[in-house]
Structure formats: structure tokens, C-alpha cells
């Protein structure tokens, strides 16, 4: 494998304008590895950068292969990896316990504050390049990040609040992360997983992943755990309404609306856990590979639409319109 001499990268100029630059590559920095990007998935959160522009190359759901290495690294060229985006310090209290997503000195995320994966090449700190097991392909491995990684971490936190495994779990919002929660909850052994989304096509995908879709959104006290994945205020209200006393509301959805709690007599007179989570810690990666072995291929089949880097603007257009659930930018032939 010869190391590339330059890099083609997408630049988000704002107002949905995307163009490309070709930049000469310097030597890889000490402690970093250079990856050929095999897959970089589009994420709903990228829409903010598409509208507002980005100073760095966006793209934060990356699977790649090591093509060059900096001083002081040990990953061999040819290693397939997924990219863990928080640039954690490795030395604070949280990092030392493996809770790297809670790093107290976290300043940068790859694809947000430093160059990400909408490019044919990306440099990352070696500690953020997580080797992929041989039996998992790059198109499934990449789901170990924002889809399965984030879903599994949120669910693990929510389940820790419960004395018994949940009998019934509801997912509100069936975008890629919501569908990830459906698949992971099933793979974790939750017997009855229901899902709701106003979009019938998305709901059908949740059904394909094993969710029940006849859902009563009005009656109180139905679900041990509810997972809100849309960020919309009405969906948050549903998640709070249908949870049983003592249950848990997992708030994964993101929007600019504040999280609120109702001031109703019912809410005042109930026990309830509200759980919020961010990404996942390195300590959970091993367990996430096992979950991916169980549910990853089905999720990929439901979610992924391969496109190439020059088609990025078109893919975003269809993504924003809701026609594509999770476009994958693929380069070369992902394993
Ligand atoms: Zn994402
Ligand atoms: Zn730290």
C-alpha cells in the first residue's frame, strides 16, 4: 500500500454549499496515524455544519485503514480501524477509569474541531484509532460509533437504574440512532421493544428490526424504559407520559429546545429516572463488537446507502429531504 501524497477533502462553505480542495500532505505528526477513509457516514448532526459552514473538514463516523504512521506509534500499516472522535487526554480521573467520553479535558472532537472523514485521507491520534476485529467488515464496523456505540451506552446507563430487565421499552423517533436503539435493545435481550415515528417508511424499518409498531402514545404507565431520539418537544412529552413509575426516560435526541419536565401533579408524584448520555467510553468497545456481530449486518442493510465522495452534495440533499437514511461515503472497496 503506497501512502498518498495529497488529500482530496470536502469543505462546507455554509448554506449547503460543498466544494473540494486538494491539499498536499505533510509527514504524519508524532503519535498520529494516517487513515485511508474506507467509509464515512453522514450524520444528522452534520446538517448544522452544512447550513452554517465549517472551518475544518467535517465527517465524524469514520472507518479507515492505516496507510502511514507518525513517530511513537505502533499500529501497523494495513490495520483497519474505526475512529473514536473525542480527543481524550488519557490522564484525567475519568480517562484513567476508561470513561473516555467523560474526559475532563476534552476540547476537540474529530470532524468538529479538527479535520474529519469527508476526505480520502484523515490523520487521527493513534489512541482514537480502534482496530476492527477480522470478522467485522468496515461497513458494519462504522455503525459501532454513533449508531450502536451511542445507543448501547445510553441503554446501559438507563438499564442500570432498573432492578429488573425492562419488560417493555419504547423508542420514540426512528432515524438512524432510533433504529440503532431498537436493534441494540433487541440484541441486549429486551423482549418487547416498541417504536414510534410519524414517518411510515421509518416505522416499517423499525418493524424489520423487530420492533412492535402499534403504540398507544396517550395512556400513562406503559413502559419501563422510554428512549427519546427525536429531540422534538412532543416526542419528549410522550416519553415522559408513557413511562411507568420507577422507570427511566433516556434522552438521546438533540435539538435546540431545552429539556423540560412537566409540572403536572402526576409528574410531581412519581419516581422516575431521566438519563442523558454522550457517545460511549472506550471501556465499552469490546462489548459493542459483540452487539455488532448480532445486529450490525441487519442494521447496515436497513440504513446504509453507499455513495462516493464527489457525490457528497447530492447525498446531503437527499439526506436532508429524508430520502436517504444514512448515506455512506465509500472510497475504494470497503472490506
Ligand atoms: Zn454522528
Ligand atoms: Zn481525560
TrEMBL record:
TM regions (residue ranges): none
Domain annotation Alcohol dehydrogenase-like N-terminal: ranges: 30-134
InterPro entries assigned: ADH-like_N, GroES-like_sf, NAD(P)-bd_dom_sf, Zn_alcohol_dh
Names of required cofactors: Zn(2+)
Keywords: Oxidoreductase
Record-linked Gene3D superfamilies: Medium-chain alcohol dehydrogenases, catalytic domain (3.90.180.10), NAD(P)-binding Rossmann-like Domain (3.40.50.720)
GO molecular function, one term: oxidoreductase activity
Protein name per the record: Threonine dehydrogenase-like Zn-dependent dehydrogenase
Species, as recorded: Pseudonocardia hierapolitana
Amino acid at each position: 500500500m503506497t501512502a498518498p501524497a495529497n488529500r482530496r477533502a470536502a469543505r462546507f462553505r455554509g448554506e449547503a454549499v460543498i466544494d473540494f480542495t486538494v491539499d498536499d500532505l505533510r509527514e504524519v505528526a508524532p503519535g498520529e496515524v494516517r487513515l485511508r477513509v474506507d467509509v464515512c457516514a453522514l450524520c444528522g448532526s452534520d446538517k448544522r455544519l452544512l447550513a452554517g459552514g465549517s472551518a475544518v473538514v467535517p465527517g465524524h463516523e469514520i472507518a479507515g485503514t492505516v496507510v502511514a504512521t507518525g513517530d511513537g506509534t505502533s499500529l501497523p500499516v494495513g490495520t483497519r480501524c474505526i475512529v473514536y472522535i473525542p480527543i481524550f487526554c488519557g490522564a484525567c480521573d475519568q480517562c484513567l477509569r476508561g470513561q473516555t467520553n467523560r474526559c475532563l479535558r476534552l476540547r476537540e472532537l474529530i470532524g468538529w474541531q479538527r479535520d474529519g472523514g469527508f476526505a480520502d485521507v484523515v490523520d487521527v491520534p493513534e489512541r482514537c484509532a480502534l482496530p476492527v476485529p477480522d470478522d467485522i467488515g468496515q461497513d458494519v464496523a462504522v455503525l459501532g460509533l454513533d449508531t450502536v456505540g451511542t445507543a448501547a451506552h445510553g441503554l446501559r446507563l438507563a438499564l442500570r437504574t432498573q432492578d429488573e430487565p425492562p419488560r417493555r421499552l419504547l423508542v420514540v423517533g426512528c432515524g438512524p440512532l432510533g433504529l440503532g436503539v431498537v436493534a441494540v435493545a433487541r440484541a441486549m435481550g429486551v423482549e418487547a421493544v416498541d417504536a414510534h415515528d410519524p414517518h411510515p417508511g421509518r416505522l416499517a424499518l423499525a418493524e424489520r428490526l423487530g420492533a412492535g409498531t402499534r403504540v398507544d402514545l396517550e395512556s400513562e404507565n406503559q413502559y419501563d424504559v422510554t428512549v427519546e431520539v427525536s429531540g422534538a418537544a412532543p416526542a419528549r412529552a410522550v416519553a415522559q407520559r408513557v413511562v411507568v413509575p420507577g422507570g427511566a426516560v433516556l434522552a438521546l435526541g438533540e435539538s435546540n429546545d431545552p429539556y423540560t419536565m412537566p409540572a403536572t401533579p402526576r409528574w410531581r408524584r412519581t419516581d422516575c429516572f431521566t438519563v442523558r448520555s454522550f457517545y460511549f467510553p472506550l471501556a465499552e468497545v469490546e462489548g459493542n463488537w459483540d452487539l455488532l456481530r448480532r445486529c450490525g449486518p441487519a442494521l447496515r442493510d436497513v440504513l446504509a446507502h453507499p455513495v462516493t465522495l464527489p457525490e457528497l452534495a447530492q447525498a446531503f440533499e437527499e439526506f436532508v429531504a429524508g430520502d436517504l437514511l444514512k448515506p455512506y461515503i465509500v472510497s475504494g472497496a470497503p472490506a
